[in-house]
Amino acid sequence: WLLYLLVPALFCRAGGSIPIPQKLFGEVTSPLFPKPYPNSFETTTVITVPTGYRVKLVFQHFDLEPSEGCFYDYVKISADKKNLGRFCGQLGSPLGNPPGKKEFMSQGNKMLLTFHTDFSNEENGAIMFYKGFLAYYQAVGE
Hints:
1 helix, 7% helix, 4-stranded antiparallel sheet, mainly beta, Jelly Rolls, 43% strand
């Protein structure tokens, strides 16, 4: 009977919903990072900071399958209905477009990060294991 009384109390708070404050900083990673990421996968992460702030994003680690035009596996960054770039490869790879230590900045308080992978990670017939990415974001005052 105690559980019968506690369950409604846990889920029904008086006074409506309580807003959860948005984070001023955090990290975004590819799935399973630092282990190799899955094939045939796509996800979009929406980074939101409090109103009145902008989003600044920097990649700490970046290791994706390189390709001409970043056609196979890529990270696409957009903010304010503008494409900020499409990235793949790793530092020093002849193909691809790694982001390096570039800082990406939104004008508003949202940034979208789309991670896309194709059906395989092969190079000259050998299966390759790419670790994906780790990026840090923070809210920056306008």
